[in-house]
């Protein structure tokens, strides 16, 4: 199995450090808002990586953090006149709703920064004791000139990085690339006691601390979005390798950028989409499928047309599953002919090719092409005369391979547009005084978890 390693810029053979256990850390969301589709791409891709390891028989310890204290959370909590804790709790819940809908499995542990403050403080202390960090007016900074390999992940030397560094508020720090490990508290900010006074952790230190705590000093894989390579992951390496005297991550995986209609996604360009924006219009499995139709390291372009293409592609897969299930209902329970026995083996070959694509740095695009080849073969060669044993065999392989991609063809819940259509139908029935029909639609919606409320200004609905 080969994985492209950002650190060496090469595809390398992957063998875990311990037997069949894969220790994997993925940088999680900062929980001050709904996740956007760029975040979703990373979480879907690395969930697929995890699923493939599990399919191959590895045990995956998967840790994904929640950044639940930082400037953005503090600012937003002030704007909304609430606490940082309440805001974080709310958006962690929303994260899980989105992740569940996209088939992203729960991590083995989802540590929160604010629940690991003691460990973070100890980690910072260690860096000071070892001479890698210094205290400055209640802040603690990492001295990037002390770590000789600083820049090894982003493949830049420290002078280039220093020249490009943004001049920040604290001009007193020793080098422009030095970064904050611990921030002194300002008035009105949440804070914790520390040897350097009241304050809160910087962002980079939480990942070093929590990955060491839950997975040990050396990770098999550390993964995240492309914008994290520098400075976040570079800084994580500097912290962890200085504190632990051990290699931090053996493999670094980063996804490519996601663009919208060939432009960078940004709120100011009005082309910013949350997962919720898309899944209210499309089956979440279609969004997941879309994200996996490109190789994870390539940039992916997101547009309405491309999503529509994915929707029809996904439907071809799910119709095949429906057809096979339907055929099974009446399939003949008879022995396979010699010809059928030979034909059955063709599906082992499809499976082998799917695995070959995934073994080559998780090439989901090629793996999906194999599924479509299977669809064409099934549609041509499987029908009402096919024996039960053959249909079961093919369906089993098809579902197993799909589940590696996190696709289960589950009964889809109603999307916003479908709900609106049903509400309109109910309104028409009511106008025609067809109460039985109106009640039937209401009950149908209720069964699907949608509650209606008749108000003077019209019908309102919500998910219950
Ligand atoms: Zn991180």
TrEMBL record:
Its main location: cytoplasm. Its cofactor is Zn(2+). Residues 353-415 form the Cysteinyl-tRNA synthetase class Ia DALR domain. SUPFAM superfamilies: Anticodon-binding domain of a subclass of class I aminoacyl-tRNA synthetases, Nucleotidylyl transferase. The keyword Phosphoprotein does not apply. One of its GO terms (molecular function) is cysteine-tRNA ligase activity. Binds 1 zinc ion per subunit. PANTHER family: CYSTEINE--TRNA LIGASE, CYTOPLASMIC, CYSTEINYL-TRNA SYNTHETASE. Monomer. This is Cysteine--tRNA ligase. It comes from Thermoanaerobacterium butyriciformans. The lineage of its organism: Bacteria, Bacillati, Bacillota, Clostridia, Thermoanaerobacterales. The gene is cysS.
């Amino acid at each position: 199995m080969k994985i492209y390693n950002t650190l060496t810029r090469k595809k390398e053979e992957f063998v875990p450090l311990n037997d069949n256990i894969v220790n994997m850390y993925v940088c999680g969301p900062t929980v001050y808002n709904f996740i956007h589709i760029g975040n979703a791409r990373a979480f879907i891709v690395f969930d697929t990586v995890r699923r493939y390891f599990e399919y191959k028989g590895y045990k995956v310890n998967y840790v994904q953090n929640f950044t639940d204290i930082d400037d953005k959370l503090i600012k937003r909590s002030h704007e909304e006149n609430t606490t940082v804790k309440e805001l974080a709790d709310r958006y962690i819940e929303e994260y899980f709703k989105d992740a569940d809908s996209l088939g992203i499995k729960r991590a083995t542990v989802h540590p929160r920064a604010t629940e690991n403050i003691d460990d973070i403080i100890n980690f910072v202390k260690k860096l000071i004791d070892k001479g890698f960090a210094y205290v400055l007016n209640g802040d603690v900074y990492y001295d990037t000139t002390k770590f000789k390999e600083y820049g090894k992940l982003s493949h830049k030397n420290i002078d280039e990085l220093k020249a490009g560094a943004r001049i920040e508020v604290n001009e007193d720090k020793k080098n422009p690339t030095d970064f904050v490990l611990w921030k002194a508290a300002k008035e009105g900010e949440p804070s914790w006691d520390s040897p350097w006074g009241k304050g809160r952790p910087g962002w980079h230190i939480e990942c070093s601390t929590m990955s060491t705590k839950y997975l040990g000093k050396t990770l098999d894989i550390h993964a995240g979005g492309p914008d994290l390579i520098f400075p976040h992951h570079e800084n994580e390496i500097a912290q962890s390798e200085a504190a632990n005297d051990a290699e931090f991550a053996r493999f670094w995986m980063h996804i490519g950028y996601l663009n919208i209609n060939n432009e960078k996604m940004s709120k100011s360009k009005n082309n910013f989409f949350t997962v919720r924006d898309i899944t209210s219009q499309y089956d979440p499995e279609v969004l997941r499928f879309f994200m996996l139709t490109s190789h994870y390291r390539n940039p992916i372009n997101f547009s309405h047309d491309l999503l529509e293409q994915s929707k029809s592609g996904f439907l071809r897969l799910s119709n095949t599953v429906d057809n096979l299930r339907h055929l099974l209902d009446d399939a003949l329970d008879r022995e396979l002919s010699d010809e059928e026995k030979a034909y059955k083996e063709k599906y082992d070959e499809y499976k082998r090719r799917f695995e070959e694509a995934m073994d080559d740095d998780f090439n989901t695009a090629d793996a999906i092409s194999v599924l479509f080849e299977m669809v064409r073969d099934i549609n041509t060669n499987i029908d009402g005369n096919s024996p039960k044993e053959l249909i079961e065999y093919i369906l089993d392989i098809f579902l197993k391979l799909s589940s590696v991609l996190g696709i289960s063809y589950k009964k889809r819940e109603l999307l916003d547009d479908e709900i609106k259509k049903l509400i309109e139908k109910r309104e028409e029935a009511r106008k025609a005084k067809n109460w039985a029909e109106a009640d039937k639609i209401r009950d149908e919606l209720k069964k699907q978890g949608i509650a209606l409320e008749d108000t003077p200004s019209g019908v309102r609905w919500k998910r219950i």
